[in-house]
Write a structure and sequence with these properties.
Helices cover 39% and strands 15% of the residues. The protein starts with 6 loop residues before the first helix and ends in a 13-residue tail after the last strand. The protein is α+β, with helices and mostly antiparallel strands. The protein is globular, with a radius of gyration of 16 Å. The protein has a three-stranded antiparallel sheet with strand order 1-2-3, with no helix packed on it. The structure holds zinc ion (ZN). Residues 63, 65-66, 68, 89, 91-92, 94 line the site of zinc ion.
Length: 112
């Protein structure tokens, strides 16, 4: 037994580190965007290494393509279209659709 902790321990720790990294990214964003992007990259690396999933609540916060940390109005654009959230990365232009499963009345209206 040379490994520290069990596999599920490691996963729990990985999940914790991922959420810490994302909150750091949020904190640092206003004065160091590069650092925020770096946090996203690290979080994704941890997720890959430990084979854990990035929590759904964090999925809209980064760009899958270029690993940018997305902040609405700064590095990303968030739109609601036909009950779906469409997030556009302003850095590389890639889109991402996230079904909200909520009311269908928000067609075409921007949420702020
Ligand atoms: Zn991007």
């Amino acid at each position: 037994m040379s490994r520290k902790g069990t596999r599920s321990d490691r996963k729990l720790i990985a999940m914790e580190r991922i959420s810490i990294l994302f909150s750091k990214a949020e904190d640092f964003f206003s004065w160091n965007q590069e650092y925020s992007h770096h946090c996203v990259r690290s979080a994704r690396l941890i997720a890959m290494k430990e084979r854990v999933k990035i929590p759904p609540r964090l999925k809209g916060k980064y760009c899958r393509k270029c690993n940018s940390f997305l902040v609405s109005g700064v590095t990303g654009r968030v739109r609601i279209y036909r009950g779906r959230v469409i997030i556009t990365c302003l850095n590389c232009g890639s889109h991402r659709r996230i079904p909200t499963g909520r009311s269908k009345k928000s067609n075409g209206k921007e949420k702020n």
